[in-house]
Amino acid sequence: MNKNTIDELFKNLEGTFDTEMPNLGHDNRFLAKLQQQDTIVESPPKKTSYWKPFLAVAASIVICLSVFTVFEQQEPELMDLASISPELSQTQSFFTMAIEQELVALEAQRSPETEDMIQKAMNALKVLEDDYQALKIDLTESGNDKRVIYAMISNFQNRIDVLKNVIEHIEEVKNFKNNQNENTTTI
Predict the structure, then answer these.
(1) What is the CA radius of gyration of the chain?
(2) Is residue 109 within 8 Å of 167, Cβ to Cβ?
C-alpha cells in the first residue's frame, strides 16, 4: 500500500480506538470467571474402551492373512516358446528380430500418404499380439501342447507376412505415383 493511504487511514480512524486502561484487578476477575465456567461445564467421564486392543490385533491378523493370500494366489508365469527348449528359444529370437526389422522398414515408409495403411497394419499386429498372449496362456495350461506351439510359430509368421505385405503395397503405390508423374511430365 502507499504510505499516504495508510496515513490517511489512521487519520480517519483517529479517536475511535479504545485507549482506556481497564480497572485495577481486571485480570483477576476475568480469570475467576473462566474458572467458574470450567467448574460448571464438566465433561462427561471418559469411557474406557477395552475393545481397542482387540480390534488392533484383529486388524493386524486380517492384514497379514490378506497379504499371504495375495502371494499364494499369484498366477504362474506364462510360458512362451523360449521357455520350452533352446531350439524354440532361437526360433522365437529369430522371429522377434525379423519383426523388429520389418517394423523399422515400415516406419521408414511413413508419410502422410501411407499413414492409413501403416495404422491398419499396426492394428492387425495388435490383434495378432493379443492372440499370441492368449496362446501363451493356452501353452501354460496345456503343458507344451504341440498344436499350441505350432499356432505360436504361425502367429509370428503371420505378423511378418502382414508387415511385408504392407511394405510391398506401399512400394507399389509409390511406384505407381512415380510412373504417373513421369507420364504427365512427358506429355
Answers:
(1) 41
(2) yes
Amino acid letter, 111: S
Interhelix angle 115-142/146-186, rounded to 10 degrees, is 170
Residue with cell 482506556: 20
What lies within 8 Å, CB to CB, of 131 at 6+ separation is 155
Quick check: 92 and 81 in contact, CB under 8 A? yes
How does 63-96 read in b/e, with b if 16+ C-beta sit within 10 Å? Answer: eeeeeeeeeeeeeeeebbbeebeeebeebbeebe
Residues 6+ apart with CB under 8 A from 167: 102, 105, 106, 109
Q: What is the pLDDT of residues 84-101, one digit of tens each?
A: 888 988 999 999 999 999
Rounded distance between C-alpha atoms, residue 86 and residue 121, angstroms:
31
Instruction: Report which of 101, 124, 128, 96 is spatially closest to residue 116, judged by C-alpha positions.
Output: 124
CA-wise closest residue to 124 among 89, 85, 164: 164
Average pLDDT, the chain: 81
Long-range contacts of 70-73 (CB under 8 A, 24+ apart): none
pTM of the model: 0.57
Contacts of residue 89, defined as CB under 8 A and 6 or more positions apart, other chains included, come to: 81, 82, 83
